[in-house]
């Protein structure tokens, strides 16, 4: 067995990782280019997914790679229905002036524009999973770690990913003929982009303010 | 506004990211060194967390940094109780011979051994969150993305992280005086290590086999 995994990374290597993290964006349809992805790049993104940690080494993930136009149109239809429901919620809420108008102007997905969609599922294991016996959510969280690996790997390949969550998970399962026990964790739109924004789009638009470190990092316990 | 986020990464830079991902391990108490972490390194790990994607830019995370011995002992006590429950489940199950014995020999946490523990919470926002209206789990998944960023950043700094999930989340909340609406997502043990294993420990021990890409990557839909 090789010992290369025991490698010590240098400061500049660690800095590069942070640079990739900082440059990663959630990409929507207004930034995707139609050009097809290099299959080698797609393979590399999946290899990154499979290097994610998983509870009890359960690897409870399943990825459906989607390019067919009719499937994507059906998914986009679910987005449309769910987004109308979302607008109704924002309309009903007690929001600051202009918030609903801002919401309505946002492009929130790239289902049709991106050349590749990937639906990511949780495939629960029968019987107890090591590490999941007290926290049943752990299997789902392993799948999310795989998604984050894909997102970072894609960005390092100068490829954008957008995570679409304004979808009815049961409708997506139906469209993709998923077995009943599977659970949709993420729906990803993947493609080359004309540019990556410098900041998250919702930060640029002042939809929500960036929290300061001292607001979210506490010492020893909550009330000290 | 600078345009450095639009940076194109090179193939060797992308390869380095994969190398960090491949070298990341779940670290337990038998590998942690007692020596304190450099505060600059801890800061860098938190900076990585805060660069994670979050649904609707909600940044619904909260991190409690724990070094006090009595707090860690209380958390370790919860691990002990939950791990006895887990063993009972593995004992009752219909497992291959030796599985329970294997389980009992595993060191599954490093709560006391690691110089730093970090409890990671989901802090739900009041009112609808953009992108979370159809999939309420999205906020929790944002917090998991932050954990995966921390894990990768730590590895690039040659620091190990172990995610302990054999804990009663309500007990952990009580120990840390967490407000009722918070939810424990992850409990991390962080520290320098004597070595990183070449493979996941559970893979080396053949607890579970590594899945092949073709088992988990499907094309267009489930039944084609």
Q: Could you explain the architecture of this structure?
A:
The structure is a homodimer of 224-residue chains. In chain A, helix 2 packs antiparallel against helix 5. The relative contact order of chain A is 0.21. Chain A has 224 residues and is an alpha+beta fold. In chain A, strands 1-2-4-3 form a 4-stranded antiparallel sheet, with helices on both faces. Chain A starts with 10 loop residues before the first helix and ends in a 5-residue tail after the last strand. Chain A has helices at 11-23, 39-50, 69-92, 99-105, 138-156, 169-175, 201-204, 213-216, and strands spanning 61-66, 116-122, 160-164, 183-191, 217-219. The mean pLDDT of chain A is 94. Chain A is built from 8 helices and 5 strands; from the N terminus they run H-H-E-H-H-E-H-E-H-E-H-H-E. At the A-B interface, helix 1, helix 2, strand 1, helix 3 and helix 5 of A face helix 1, helix 2, strand 1, helix 3 and helix 5 of B. Strand 1 (61-66) of chain A pairs parallel with strand 5 (217-219) of chain B, so a sheet runs across the interface.
């Amino acid at each position: 067995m090789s010992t290369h995994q025991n490698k010590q990374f240098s400061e500049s290597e660690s800095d590069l990782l942070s640079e990739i993290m900082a440059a990663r964006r959630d990409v929507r349809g207004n930034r995707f280019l139609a050009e097809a992805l290099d299959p080698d790049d797609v393979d590399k993104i999946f290899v990154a997914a499979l290097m994610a940690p998983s509870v009890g080494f359960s690897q409870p993930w399943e990825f459906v790679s989607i390019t067919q136009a009719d499937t994507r149109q059906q998914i986009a239809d679910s987005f449309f229905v769910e987004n109308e429901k979302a607008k109704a919620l924002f309309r009903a809420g007690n929001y600051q002036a202009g918030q609903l108008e801002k919401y309505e102007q946002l492009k929130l997905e790239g289902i049709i524009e991106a050349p590749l969609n990937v639906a990511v599922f949780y495939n629960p294991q029968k019987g107890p999973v090591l590490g999941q016996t007290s926290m049943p959510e752990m299997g789902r969280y392993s799948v999310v770690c795989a998604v984050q690996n894909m997102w970072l790997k894609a960005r390092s390949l100068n490829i954008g990913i957008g995570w679409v969550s304004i979808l009815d998970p049961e409708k997506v399962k139906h469209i993709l003929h998923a077995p009943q026990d599977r659970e949709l964790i993420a729906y990803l739109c993947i493609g080359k982009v004309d540019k990556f924004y410098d900041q998250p789009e919702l930060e640029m638009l002042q939809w929500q303010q960036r929290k300061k470190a001292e607001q979210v990092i506490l010492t020893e316990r909550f009330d000290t």
